[in-house]
Amino acid sequence: MSGIRTPISTLAATAQPASTEIPAPLIPLLSSLTSIIYTIEHLFNKIPGSPIIVRYIKSSYQDDPWRSVLELFLLAFAIRTVLKGRTRGEGEGKSFIKLTEKEIDELVDEFNPLPLADDPTPADSFTLDTVPIIYGPNGIKVKTAANGKTLLNLATPNWHGFIENDKMKQVAIETLGQYGVGTCGPSGFYGTIDVHVKAEADIASFIGTEASIIYSQAFALVSSAIPAFAKRGDIIVADRGVNFGIHKGLQISRSNIKWYAHGDMKDLERVLQSVERERKRKGGRLTKKFIVAEGIFENDGMLLDLPKVIELKKKYKYRLILDECQSFGMMGAHGRGITEHFGIPATEVDMILGSMANGLATGGGFCAGSQVVCQHQRINSSASVFSASLPAMLATCASAAIDILKTQPNLMTSLQANITIFRQQLSKLEAGGPGSEQKLISIPSDMNSGLIHIFLLDPPESLEDEELLLQDIVDEVSNTSNLLITRSRRLRSQEVFEPEPSLKICVSGYMSKKDVESAGKGLKAAIVKICGSE
């Protein structure tokens, strides 16, 4: 544009062949257009920076004319957006109704917001009313009323009596005096203290992994560790029987979830083969692939076939996330979990998740694995980054409990002996059990599991009626046998797969054999009384 001064009439005349002349009526029009363009160009050239704009337009048009068209369109759209009001002015629109101040006040007074939560259903109220309250210290013997009778506690996972252990009590008192109650900060923000580092080292050494990371709550561990590694587009193959915490972790990860039948290794391989066929057919990119399962399943006490899972994970190139929140401290010769139970090195499992609340009677959870796995969680796991770190006395008590498990293998022997005694008392009521007594129950829990779930063989048609029947058994053993047991607590309508109602029993090796035998007989009598045919 700059430097062009030739009138358009002259250009038009010179551009025509010699035999062509511009019609006389058009000459004044062309002269006027030329004058207007010249004036606009003259004014534009007075704007500071105009030569730069001209050069940019010439270069842009020469290299990519379509870009200039697009930029012109975007400029026009931006100008239109700025000049146009973002919202309609008051009183605009065909359906606009102008209200007086009085009418507005009346509408505000009549507004009734929806409640934050619905009123409790009868089932909710029943659940709340039947939650026992422990008066005084928890342990093997407890009271559920201030002046009530003492009950044998079969509701708490106190596998080795660590709750009552004098050494652990002394460690807790000493730590409380030195470190105080809490840390008041997440692990990554001045919440990590020396006893945390020692507890992580003790756990890793005990299990047999490179490293471990501790969390302040086991549920948060499970629901945070999974999405720290699995993301959208990744593939997770999970057992249908996994616990609620795992379900939350899978949901948060937004991965592609594939389910296999609970405890069925043939179906697991079928699903793995199906995933591989689908990947080859679609020619999709390689993604991270995980198998997620539990060592001892929280919902029924079944044992995972770990050797077969390890074989399949290697065959199909998967990583294994193993939740040992129930089995750690309860399974194996020294309580290391199902890796020790099956004689498999812990390094064969990519991630081992465990509960220190269940296994060590302290609090919190841990993830054991390689250095890379643990370090990654310190900056990518939401529960590790945002939750206050574990109180110091829980960390020192965890280290003390591990020392006890290392030096007293007889604890595991006592636990297994009590499990066997308890199961023997109920065996005649089990489907397929010995004797001619009426078969009333099913116990899918592993014979070595201290966590025992008891299901009714012929339950009522509705879940509510089944829960009521199970609660009758709970009340019966409390009144007649001085036992504290519990029903499995579920978040109905929130579970991906609704577990069946069951009685949940936790056997402890700290109980006397006489107490365990008496507890088994008392529970058997209650089941026969409530569920048996007259």
Automatic annotation (TrEMBL):
Aminotransferase class I/classII large domain mapped to chain residues: 171-517
Which Gene3D superfamilies does the entry link to?
Aspartate Aminotransferase, domain 1, Type I PLP-dependent aspartate aminotransferase-like (Major domain)
Which GO biological process categories is it annotated with?
A: ceramide biosynthetic process; sphingosine biosynthetic process
Kindly give the InterPro entries that the UniProt entry links to this protein. Answer: Aminotransferase_I/II_large, AON_synthase_class-II, PyrdxlP-dep_Trfase, PyrdxlP-dep_Trfase_major, PyrdxlP-dep_Trfase_small
- Which Pfam family is one of those matched by this entry? Aminotran_1_2
Q: Which family does it belong to?
A: Belongs to the class-II pyridoxal-phosphate-dependent aminotransferase family.
- PANTHER family under this entry? CLASS II AMINOTRANSFERASE/8-AMINO-7-OXONONANOATE SYNTHASE, SERINE PALMITOYLTRANSFERASE 1
Protein's name according to its UniProt entry: serine C-palmitoyltransferase
